[in-house]
Write a structure and sequence with these properties.
By secondary structure, this protein is mostly helical. It has two domains: 1-36; 38-74, no CATH class. It is built from four helices and no strands. The chain is elongated and about 60 Å long. The chain starts with a helix and ends with a helix.
């Protein structure tokens, strides 16, 4: 009976830590996206980009360019 309790407590702690990490990363990512003021069409494109493409797109948009221009010849 004690082993089941310990396993349950361990799983609960693991899930709590995992949820905190996802939430923190999500907040940072969402803050960047919202600061870019992307159109609905650009948001659809954003969702398909790799992390590297997103970094490049963010720099382009912050410097006055467009998300589409950041992709070049995709």
């Amino acid at each position: 009976m004690k082993s089941i309790t310990l396993i349950t407590i361990g799983a609960a702690l693991f899930l709590t830590v995992a949820c905190d990490r996802v939430t923190e990363e999500s907040i940072e990512a969402n803050a960047l996206v919202y600061s870019l003021n992307l159109s609905p069409d650009e948001m659809n494109i954003w969702e398909t980009l790799t992390p590297t493409q997103r970094e490049r797109a963010a720099v382009f948009v912050q410097n006055g360019g467009t998300l589409i221009a950041s992709l070049g010849d995709k």
